Amino acid sequence: MKRLAIALVLLLGACTTTPQPARTPLPASPPAGEPRELIGLTGPQLQAMLGRAAFSRRENGSELWRYDSPQCRAFFFLYAEGGTTRVRHVETVPRGRTMAADPGCLSVLRGKPASPVS
């Protein structure tokens, strides 16, 4: 009887499986490159250039500032450096052709007409 109970426990244990989480593929990463004139700006310099962000969030020594226009959105990622925060990465939606930030979108946010695309 004891052997039968052990065999049943082993048999039931073999039937259980751990469900595997669904794997969702990551989206393609944005093209490399940053708008040189914006990288390294401090938070106050960015705000002087573009005004107050439509949305901002602070988390673990970094900040995200989002600027909106009817044509696009721009996301600025600022990181603490030497007692201040500086822009280290910029992305726009829609993305640029040669980098993550579309120069036309950034021009619109600055209040300048966008350069024609050739």
Could you describe the 3D structure shown?
The protein is elongated and about 85 Å long. The protein has helices spanning 2-15, 43-50, 103-110; strands spanning 55-59, 62-68, 73-81, 84-93. The protein has three helices and four strands. Strands 1-2-3-4 form a four-stranded antiparallel sheet, with helices on one face. This is Outer membrane protein assembly factor BamE. Residues 1-22 form the signal peptide. Keywords: Signal.
Counting helices, strands and paired strands, the structural category is: alpha+beta
Shape: elongated
Roughly how much helix do the residues carry, as a percent range?
25-40%
Order of helices and strands: HHEEEEH
End-to-end separation in angstroms reads 84 Å
**Neighbour order of strands in the largest sheet:** 1-2-3-4
Strand content: 25-35%
**What's the rounded overall pLDDT mean?**
84
Main sheet attributes: strand count, strand direction, barrel closure:
4 strands, antiparallel
Instruction: Give the beta-strand count.
Output: 4
| Tally of helical segments | 3
Low-pLDDT stretches are none
CA-atom Rg in angstroms: 25 Å
Signal peptide: 1-22
Protein name: Outer membrane protein assembly factor BamE
Organism: Rhizomicrobium electricum
Keywords: Signal
